[in-house]
Design brief:
Two copies of one chain form a homodimer. Helices cover 56% and strands 11% of the residues of chain A. By secondary structure, the first copy, chain A, is mainly alpha-helical. The first copy, chain A, has a single domain (17-122), classed as Orthogonal Bundle (Arc Repressor Mutant, subunit A). In chain A, strand 2 and strand 3 form a beta hairpin. Chains A and B meet through helix 1, helix 2, helix 3, strand 1 and helix 4 of A and helix 1, helix 2, helix 3, strand 1 and helix 4 of B.
């Protein structure tokens, strides 16, 4: 007696209804670690206030004072969300004199935000 | 005595440190309703199992049986997540004979997933 303990993506084709489609899907398989990090990235964007901060920074950098005014919250609330967004590498900051400026971490975040907006607007 | 109750984006320029940058940010202002819907979309993607389902469907449609095998979970668990993903319009289904096939709802979802992956991989 043998027990099949191989993970699904290592089973032979006969286990699948459409082996060709499954082969395509498995070619782009992402492991648990990567899926977890991706889920965490999306989770960082799953809050309306953080979305509005990303929206405000989508086309310009802003100092904390201006960002707070644009988003319309207390500086304490904005600072809290900015810390989380920095930890998740969605925004980055630089100091220039007495001002701290925030911008999106890289072009991926800009694209990520706008693809989400496309879905909400036209989806 | 007057109290300023205008929303921040209607205040005069003198309230801002960098009025030009603020003007750019406000040009792309998104309202609360849109920010909420966007946050909900990202929230639907903030779960590792749902991320793996999206990854499996990123380049091909799959019937429920094959999708379950690729993701490596019970059909009950996959069906539960598919219901949520359908409600959020991230995936759509079609029936053909005795099979139900799932695919990404539109190209925005494909792009959204891949921009997130870009961030995780190279960010």
């Amino acid at each position: 007696m043998t027990i099949d303990i191989s993970p699904p993506h290592e089973k032979s084709d006969e286990h699948y209804v459409h082996p060709d489609q499954v082969a395509v899907a498995l070619e782009h398989f992402i492991n648990d670690e990567k899926a977890g990090r991706l889920a965490e990235t999306f989770k960082a964007l799953s809050d309306p206030t953080r979305v509005r901060i990303i929206a405000a920074l989508a086309h310009t950098e802003l100092c904390v004072y201006d960002l707070t005014a644009v988003v319309g919250l207390t500086q304490s609330a904005v600072s809290h969300q900015l810390r989380l967004l920095r930890t998740m590498r969605l925004v980055k900051s630089r100091r220039d004199g007495r001002h701290i400026y925030y911008q999106l971490d890289d072009a991926h975040i800009h694209d990520l935000f706008h693809r989400g907006l496309d879905h909400v607007m036209h989806g």
